[in-house]
Amino acid sequence: MSELGIAIIGTGTVAERHAEAIRALHGASLTAVYDTDPDRCRNFAGDRGVTAAPTLEKLLTRQDVDIVTIATPSGVHADVAVPAAGAGKHIICEKPLEITLERTDLIIKACDDAGVRLAAIFQARFGSNVRLIRNALDEGRFGRMILASAQVRWYRSPEYYAGAGWRGTWALDGGGALMNQSIHIIDLLLFLAGDVEEVTAYTGTLTHPGLEVEDTAVAVLKFVSGGFGVIEASTSCAPGFPRKLELSGQNGSVILEDDRIVRWQFADERRSDAGIREKGSKSEGLAGGAGDPRAAGFEGHRRQFQDMVDAINQGRPPVLQGREGRKAIQLITCIYESARNGRPCRL
Fold this sequence. Notes:
This protein is of the alpha/beta class and 347 residues long.
């Protein structure tokens, strides 16, 4: 089985994580990169010994590119993904897939029409502890879900937003603390607690004057299952704290802090539970970035990228397909609508 070639489109901060993840893959390697900034592209490519493509079109014609990873500003993902799909390239796209449902659907349709695989990057789902929680849910250990909540009390400095002109803009970031920083744990919340039926929300810009988007938001959720929940999201909470997911059912509760289980308690205590509490309390290096986005590791990306490589070789869909990535965008845009209109929003 021949080695697959991967190209990175966009060479900003998150692209460095992509490159590290690709370097650690089995059965694939980095072959080319492209960025609209030629100097940055050449430097990024030169540091890694690969080709800097002069244009997107040239990149997409390369026979040594089977997969592209998209690491551009969020609001231009569709501008890259649609032609990449048309060129027959499989796509791994950074969160969010896009900043509106309409543009998200353009990407999904383009990949369906071209018969290529599409994966939305939500690397937190690839944690062992997340799988343990999902298994407990599938086994019915929680009973009826009562409360399911997500908390992101992070910090981003004014320099963070000023350092890249697209950050904190509606046109290219699609939102603030929700769409950019909190979307990972919102995806986990939906993956573990199920779909949301209705949301009521408030958003505000509390500590970053002049920022177009929200730096703080709170939303009250009603799940399709009948349970309730809360989302707290902020980039104003110095110095930044681990993100937290709490699930409480009638028969048990779990708290996930970053990628560590800090509570695992069920009415039907099993012999395996003590071991889960001990092993689950240790980090796998899949989180971080509460106070500095550069502090996050690449292991989660590596696991998700490896899944795409394996999916292509095995003739199966990736574990986390594009349509799954749509769900968090739908919820976040509904939160924005509720905050804007001052009334509940039904999904």
